[in-house]
Structures are given as structure tokens and as C-alpha cells.
Amino acid sequence: MSSAAPKWKIIVANDDAAVDYKKVIIEDLKKDPRVELVDDFGAKDTSDKTPYPNVATAAAEKVAAGQYDRGLLLCGTGLGVAISACKVPGIRAACCHDPFSVERSILSNDCQILTMGQRVIGIELARNLVKQWLGHVFDPQSASAKKVAAISEYEKKAAS
Fold first, then answer.
1. Within a domain: residue 17?
2. What residues are labeled active site?
3. Over its length of 160 residues, how does the chain's per-residue pLDDT go in tens digits?
4. Distance between CA atoms of 153 and 149, rounded to whole angstroms?
5. What ranges in 90-143 are assigned the alpha helix state H?
């Protein structure tokens, strides 16, 4: 990561299916010098049965409003929180369970939100992917910028 990279403000949200991973990953984020702020917006224990769409959309709204630079959303598979977050205007969320997808979610798609599933990958892989995710920054001069702009334009058109 270049020295010009930002210090991230990150919101983490999860449902009851991802409490264990959330706790471990938040501790990693708090120790990472690339992170300025990390807030826990998710279920604190498995008895909290708040539906994943509620936590995912609430966290995504905070990212869309600029309160946070990025969001990390966790559930059983990572799919439900990704689908939910993408319903928030201006948000691009991707469910990634491998290093290449994490890289491309940022470099090709300027995703603000990474999602993962506790029931899908091991904790050490999840921790490693989050560390990699922090190091990627979208280049608005890249060839992908026009594609990201096309997504945004479609979203505006669909909303009108």
C-alpha cells in the first residue's frame, strides 16, 4: 500500500450467523495502522436475531452518507448482506472469498463494502482477505472508471 493511501473509517455489521468472525476481525482492524476508526454495528451475540437485511442496509446507508469510507458485512454466506447492501443507492458491495475477488472488487469496481460468510470460509482466510482489502485503493484514472461510472449512471436513471 502506498503512503498516500487513506486511513480508513470502517463500519462492521453482522447477523447472528457471523458473531464469532466479527469479533476476531474487529480486533484485527483495531490493531491495523491503516484503520483510523472501526465501529461495530452488528449483532453482539447469537441471541440477537436482527435480520441481516436490517443491519446490512443500515450500515450501507452510513457508508453512502460518507460517515464511513468502507463497510465490512458478515453473515452466514456473505450473500444476503451483499444483496441487501446493494439496494442502497450509491453502494457497490461484493461477496468475496478469495484474494483475486477482493482485489478486483476495489480495483475494477470501486466497491465500498466487502461481504463474507462465516459458514463459507475459515477464519484465517477471512482475516487475511480483510488485511488485503485494506491495501487496495480504486484509481479513478483507471480503465475501470468508465465502467463504474456506467453503473452509477444506470442507478440514477433507474431511480428517476
1. yes
2. 75
3. 444 668 999 999 999 999 999 999 999 999 999 999 999 999 999 999 999 999 999 999 999 999 999 999 999 999 999 999 999 999 999 999 999 999 999 999 999 999 999 999 999 999 999 999 999 999 999 999 999 999 999 999 998 8
4. 6
5. 99-107, 123-134
Taking residue 28's Cβ as centre, other Cβ atoms within 10 Å add up to 16
Number of domains in the chain: 1
For residues 93 and 112, the answer to whether their CB atoms sit within 8 Å is yes
In the Cβ-directed half-sphere of 26, how many Cα atoms lie within 13 Å?
Answer: 19
Query: Is 124 within a domain?
Result: yes
0.85 cut: is pTM over it?
Answer: yes
Domain that holds residue 144: 8-159
Q: Please report, for the domain that includes residue 13, its CATH number.
A: 3.40.1400.10
Q: Is residue 150 part of a domain?
A: yes
